[in-house]
Amino acid sequence: MGTGESDLPKMGNPARRALEVAGYTRLDQLTGATEAELLALHGMGPKAMGILREALQERGLSLRDG
């Protein structure tokens, strides 16, 4: 499914699939999304959101406010 270019952090398969189906394969793409938008994806949950927030923060990135 992926192109080998994904830099998403290690997380559960349902969350990873939810992001990929929505077109997110790289952390920098997530900066255009809000937490609410990501949590609305089928397969995303609080644990995966925490992993994403931490990975974004490590790179000096963040989700869009809203």
TrEMBL record:
This is DNA-binding protein.
